[in-house]
């Protein structure tokens, strides 16, 4: 009899899922393109690892899956990596595995298709335009006569997103997009880009699970953004209980109903303008990114990766969704260009909580700028009974941190 396995395709969490699933008793086969960093210790826990740059090619992916199905009894197939969502959902629909409708998955991954669908369904959106040339972008910028946001059509982790004021900045953003596309071997598309009206305001997100029985609301997160022109995320509080929470949840239910979101985890980001109007920024059919799984685990005393795997296996979500605690995440980004290292004095830190500190620059390394969430130098996660206690714990950690920067001044007007 074939061994029963779950197939995880391209982790969005550095393969932490493999560890948590193994601890929960699952046997995991992991498929990865090798494009993003995975923790080798956790890869070693998988019963099999398939690593190939051709993973994004539909025919190759399908052949690999069919070989796995001949070798194992596959219980479910899922991904936590944005770029594989369309392929995985298409295969699951074809083979009868529980997963999101593939047409909806594709429309959510394409930012322009999503904006058009929002408009069709009556959601308020910022002004937007799909551009295929710099000249089209310059025309939109001139017509708006205000700041706009440059977005890759299918990017993730805020990579390539930038606030634009001038034609020069637009061209710089487009050059960055071409570099991103080259680095990802065309996975990030560069044949077009999306420009949107810039809506300033506070950011919130909502996490929920849809199974065959209904909606399981996990909660709202209050999110803090770094300074423009990039839109990196520097702070999270989960679950957030504020005056805006009810409106965010109400808008989330409206999204589920109108878009007919039928299955799986989902993460929606919102911005609230000065008039209190909510705009959906983007929707990702997975929960918020690394290391935010920790916030859910700590606040709700669950193994969220194991719970999601059970959902994909059975079609039913059974985990606890009532938070007994509050959890926070603070991300520290490079303050300037130069060689930076971080030294942390001896403090209690463990992934078991209530404080978990990840130092991403224990040794001096060169940083040129902050352009995406992947550029963080320090992650401080805390969990306590109240939001205030979490913040005080995070501040206590920060007071034990020393940041060393070696840099040289640069005359700004030199060509």
TrEMBL record:
> Where do the ATP-grasp domain residues begin and end?
115-313
| Gene3D superfamilies in the cross-refs | ATP-grasp fold, B domain
Q: Which GO terms describe its molecular function?
A: ATP binding; ligase activity; metal ion binding
**UniProt keyword annotations, A-Z:** ATP-binding, Ligase, Nucleotide-binding
What domain of life?
A: Bacteria
The name of this protein is: ATP-grasp domain-containing protein
Traced from the root, the source organism's taxonomic lineage reads:
Bacteria, Bacillati, Bacillota, Bacilli, Bacillales
């Amino acid at each position: 009899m074939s061994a029963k396995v779950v197939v995880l395709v391209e982790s969005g969490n550095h393969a932490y899922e493999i560890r948590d699933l193994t601890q929960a008793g699952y046997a995991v086969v992991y498929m990865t393109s090798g494009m993003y960093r995975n923790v080798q210790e956790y890869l070693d826990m998988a019963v099999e690892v398939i690593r190939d740059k051709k993973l994004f090619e539909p025919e190759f992916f399908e052949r690999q899956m069919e070989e796995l199905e001949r070798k194992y009894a596959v219980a479910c197939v899922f991904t936590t990596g944005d770029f594989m969502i369309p392929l995985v959902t298409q295969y699951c629909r074809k083979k009868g595995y529980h997963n999101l409708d593939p047409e909806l998955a594709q429309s959510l991954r394409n930012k322009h298709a999503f904006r058009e669908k929002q408009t069709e369904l009556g959601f308020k959106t910022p002004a937007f335009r799909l551009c295929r040339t710099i000249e089209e972008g310059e025309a939109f910028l001139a017509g708006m006569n205000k700041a706009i946001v440059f977005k890759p059509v299918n990017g993730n982790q805020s990579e390539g997103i930038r606030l634009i004021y001038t034609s020069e900045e637009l061209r710089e953003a487009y050059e960055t997009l071409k570099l991103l596309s080259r680095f990802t071997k065309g996975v990030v598309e560069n044949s077009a880009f999306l420009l949107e009206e810039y809506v300033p305001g506070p950011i919130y997100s909502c996490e929920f699970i849809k199974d065959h029985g209904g909606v399981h609301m996990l909660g709202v997160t209050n999110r803090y953004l770094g300074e423009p022109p990039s839109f990196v995320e520097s702070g999270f509080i989960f679950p957030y209980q504020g005056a805006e929470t009810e409106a965010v949840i109400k808008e989330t239910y409206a999204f589920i109903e109108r878009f007919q979101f039928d299955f799986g985890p989902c993460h929606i980001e919102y911005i609230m303008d000065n008039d209190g109007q909510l705009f959906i920024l983007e929707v990702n059919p997975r929960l918020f990114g690394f290391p935010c799984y920790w916030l859910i685990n700590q606040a709700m005393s669950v193994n969220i990766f194991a719970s999601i795997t059970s959902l994909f296996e059975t079609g039913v979500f059974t985990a606890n969704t009532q938070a007994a605690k509050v959890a926070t995440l603070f991300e520290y980004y490079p303050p300037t260009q130069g060689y930076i290292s971080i030294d942390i004095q001896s403090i209690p830190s463990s992934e078991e909580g209530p404080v978990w500190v990840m130092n991403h620059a224990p040794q001096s390394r060169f940083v040129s700028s902050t352009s995406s969430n992947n550029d963080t130098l320090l992650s401080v996660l805390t969990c306590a009974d109240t939001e205030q206690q979490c913040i005080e714990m995070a501040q206590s950690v920060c007071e034990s941190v020393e940041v060393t920067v070696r840099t040289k001044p640069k005359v700004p007007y030199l060509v």
